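Service request form, structural biology core

Requester: graduate student, group of Dr. S.
Request type: structure prediction, single chain
Budget code: on file
Notes: please return the result as structure tokens.

Sequence provided:
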Amino acid sequence: MSEILKGKKGSIKQAQLPANLPSWEDLSEMICEEIERGAEDNISGFRMVRKLLSDRRFDR
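Core staff response, request fulfilled:
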């Protein structure tokens, strides 16, 4: 996922994440499949992260 974040603006990391979700640094070490699996399993916060990553407003 760190490769995806390289193509995003730094302002994406200013988004408030839910308290039970790992930090952006920890999320950057995950693979995309883990984020997708968390979103599909409806784990709180992972759907929000997936939405932020797909939002074109944060593209460079």
